[in-house]
Amino acid sequence: MAKLLMVVIYVMLGTMTTVTDGQATCAQKLVPCPPYLNNSTAKPQNSCCNPIREVVANELPCLCNLYKDPTLLTSFNVTVAEALRISRECGITTDLSACSGMEKSSWRVVVRTEANVERSGHR
C-alpha cells in the first residue's frame, strides 16, 4: 500500500508524462499530501488522509498501474520511507498482494482505518 501511495504522491509532485488519464484521475485526489513528504513532524491532516482512503478503497487498479510503471519511481525525489510514513500516520494499512497477477476487473482491497473499520470491494 505504501509503495503505491508513494507512486501516486510522485505523480502529484510534478510531471505526469507517463500517466494515462485514468491514472491522473486517481493521482489528482492526492494533491494535498506532498507537504507532508519532507516534514516528518507534521501529521497528515484529513485533507490528505481521506483521499488516500478513498483511492485505496475505490481505485486500486489505478494505483496498481501507477505502481507497476517503473519510470515513475525514478522520475521523482520521494523515498519509500516518506510514503510509508504518510500512510501509517493516516492509519491506513492495505493488503496489496492482489496487484500481482490479477485482472483489473477482479481487484479486491481491504482498508483498515484508525477506527479499524473494514471495507472491501471488487473493481
UniProtKB/TrEMBL annotation:
It is found in: Cell membrane. InterPro entries: Bifun_inhib/LTP/seed_sf, Bifunc_inhib/LTP/seed_store, LTSS. The keyword Cell wall biogenesis/degradation does not apply. Keywords: Cell membrane, Disulfide bond, Glycoprotein, GPI-anchor, Lipoprotein, Membrane, Signal. Residues 16-99 form the Bifunctional inhibitor/plant lipid transfer protein/seed storage helical domain. This is Non-specific lipid transfer protein GPI-anchored 7. It is a lipid-anchor; GPI-anchor. Its main location: membrane. One of its GO terms (cellular component) is side of membrane. Belongs to the plant LTP family.
